[in-house]
Amino acid sequence: MASAAAEMDLVDILDASSGPIDIARYVDFVRDPAAGAIATFEGTTRDTFEGKLVEELRYEAYVPMAARRLAAICAEARGSWPLLRLAVAHRLGTVGVGEASVFVAASAVHRAEAMEACRYLIDEVKASVPIWKKEVYENGEVWKENKEFLERRAAHHEMDPAHELKETSNGEE
Amino acid sequence: MEIAGGLNDGTGEMNESKVEKSAGQDIKIKVLFFARARDLTGVSETSLEMPDGSTAGDCMRNLLVKFPSLQEIYNSMVLAINEEYAAESTLLTSKDELAIIPPISGG
Predict the structure, then answer these.
(1) Who among A43, A62, A160 is closest to B107 (CB)?
(2) Residue A62: which CATH number?
(3) pLDDT band at residue B13 under the 50/70/90 scheme
(4) Residue B37 lies in domain
C-alpha cells in the first residue's frame, strides 16, 4: 500500500538474542510533533496458570508471515482511524516471567484514535499473527491457545461451509 | 417458457473445455509445521508430491495419513499458503508453501 504510511509503521519480530524489548525506542518512534496523544500497550508474562507456577515462556513464530500480518493489521488500523505513527514489537525465544513479550504504540492527533488503534492492534495480534507461546512448568509444558484465534476460526467455519448462501448484507463491523 | 429466455442461455457454456486433461505432472508442495504441529509430527517441514489440481484440503488429507497424530489439532488449526491464511478449497501450484497453523498464542 502507500509507502508513505508504511514508513510510519515500525514492525519488529525480535529474535531470542535481542533481550528485553526497548520500550523507549518504540515510544520514541511514534512520537510526533503533530500528535496530541501516544497510546501504548505492554503485554507481560504471568507467573501462574491454573495454580501452577510458570517457570518460563518460550515464543516462536512463522516469522515472514507474522511480519506480513503485522504490517497488514497496521494498514487496517490506518483504514479505520486517522493515525500518525504505529509501532508493534513481539519477542521470540525465552521470555522471563514478568517481562514484556509484546509492545504496541500508536500516535494520533487526539487520544481516542490512538487508544482505539492500540486496542485494535493488540487484539489482532492475539487473533491472527502466527506466533506461539509454550508455558514451561516445574513438571511439564503446554502450548497456549488464544481464544481470539479460536473464536475467529469458528466464525469462519460457520460462514464458509460448502453451501453458497452468502448474504451480502450489512453486518460488518 | 420464453419470458426470460435470455437468462437460460448459459447451458451452452458447459461444452467449454474447462476440465483440463489431468495428465499434468505432479506438483511439489513444501509443508511447514509449527509449535504443537511440529511436536506431533516430530518434524518442522516435509514435502509432498501431489497430482496437479490438488487443493490445500487434499494435502491436508494426505498429511493426516502420513502423520495420524495431526488429527489431534485438525479441529482447531488453520492453513496458510505462501504466508497468507487460506481455505482448504484453495488450489495449489508447484512450489507452494503450505503451513499448518495450530492455535496461535502470541501476545
Answers:
(1) A43
(2) 3.90.1170.40
(3) very low
(4) 24-101
How far is A155 from A19, CA to CA, in rounded Å?
Answer: 37
Find chain A residues with C-beta within 8 A of B102's C-beta. 132, 143, 145
ipTM of the complex: 0.87
Contact assignment for B106 to A65 by CB distance below 8 Å: no
Please tell me the distance from the alpha carbon of residue A38 to that of residue A167, in angstroms, as a whole number.
39
Angle at A153 between CA B84 and CA B32, to 5 degrees: 40
Q: List pLDDT tens digits, range A105-153.
A: 999 999 999 999 999 999 999 999 999 999 999 899 999 999 999 999 9
Which residues on B lie below 8 Å from A133 (Cβ)? 105-107
- Condensed to tens digits (0 to 9), the pLDDT of residues A61-72 reads 999 999 999 999
What number is the average pLDDT over the span A25-45?
98
Report how far residue A76's alpha carbon sits from residue A81's, in angstroms, rounded to the nearest whole number: 9
Subunit contact A59:B102, Cβ cutoff 8 A: no
Cβ distance A131 to B36 less than 8 Å, yes or no, reads no
Q: Is A29 among the domain residues?
A: yes
- Alpha carbon A72 to its chain's center: 11
Total structural domains within chain B: 1
**Average pLDDT of the residues in A83-92:** 98
Closest CA to A90 of A76, A105, A79: A105
Could you give the number of structural domains in chain A? 1
The SS3 assignment for B7 reads: helix
d(CA A30, CA A103): 12
